[in-house]
Amino acid sequence: MSFQHGLQPSDVLTNQELMSIFKCAMAGGMRYSHRTNALVLISDHTKSLYDDRWISNVFHYTGMGQAGPQSLDYSQNKKLYHSTHTNVMVCLFEVFTQNQYVFQGEVYLSGGTTR
Question: What is the pTM of this model?
Answer without folding.
Answer: 0.86
